[in-house]
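User: N-acetyltransferase. Structure?
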Amino acid sequence: MDVIRNEDEQRFEIHLDDGAIGFADYRLGQGKVTFPHTVVPPHHEGQGIGSAIAKASLDWARAEGLQVIPACSFYANYLKRHPEYHDLLDADTRKRLGG
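Assistant: Predicted structure:
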């Protein structure tokens, strides 16, 4: 799955074979990136689309030196399951996620 960063829309996207798009919105500000919303079309749920988007976007945040604020529940749950990204979180968020 190819994840692209759509800077104009401020989101990470996967374009699916049937024309649908899975995406995660992001907002940049003062050395941080917030992920407020993730969408995977219902008929594509359970195919790893959200996880692929989360991984690509978190890898991008790391490369950019950004702290991550997981404002959407999908990102919060993904980060709970992936401690390899906990270094991207501020101390308060890390405590809240149990990392």
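The mean pLDDT is 94. The radius of gyration is 13 Å.
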